[in-house]
Amino acid sequence: MTSYKLLNVEAQLSLIQKGLKTRPIQYPVIDRLVQDLATCIGQHVERRNASINPIQLSILQRISEDLRTAREHIRRQDSQNTQQTLILLIQKYRAYSSCNSAYLVRHPEKMETDLAGPESSAGRELSPEGVRQAKAFAEIIEEEILMSSLPVQVKLLYSNYHRTKLFAELIKLKINAINPMYGKNVTLTFQEDEYISGGLIKNDDPAHGAWTAWAATPNGKIVNDSVKHWFIDKESSDPSKTTISIGTTHFPIIFSFLINTLHIPGDRAETFKYADYIKHTLGRYYYEQTWL
Could you give all domains of the chain from N- to C-terminal order, each with its CATH number? Predict the structure, then answer.
């Protein structure tokens, strides 16, 4: 089994740039840095291929080609072509990194017993399996942060239910460990968000199989409009940084959006799993291994 090693791409590119400025150029050092970067990108594409926006994936593929070309120039100790190739590569990587992402995520599996009593569901803790699911999703975010060549801002948003805040806190723990472990600075905000609140759902939970009918009700349409606003609000971009927005919310919130906006068939939308997500990047939505 091939081991997977995460790399702080921003720091790696900075080391490559410094290496190009040294005189004489230390070709073996630069070659090792370029090889490690190429391995990192190759593993990331293999591991996350389906969930990478097609435009970003195309950029990464061109960067991989540039890295192979750069190594050929390095072996020949061709200073001019090595520098030219790597400088253009860094510019391409900035284009890849300046694309924002927004994730709307269903909370992980919850405990059956509620902190507020059996009649409520707002205070439920995450189950042990739910904690595992939360950590697995947090690793996806960690990887996306480290793959950026720009400073990263993460907006962690959650509903008014305890379990969604717990989920966000587990993601926050993983993000806060990135700087000590990899030397990557991340700006993080953490707050409740009314647009993905469980309080939006006014009806009692429909029985299994009745969610599609609920999504067509006025309340279902209101929930859908709230989610649309949530995604639209995340579309503005700053080319000097990567912004990743994460909303931890509930099945009905996501379900209504799947039905009303993405036009996913009801029987398919009802299979939306714990800790699964919709991702939005460059005007397209990712759902179940497909960009819509």
Answer: 9-97 (no CATH), 101-291 (3.40.50.1240)
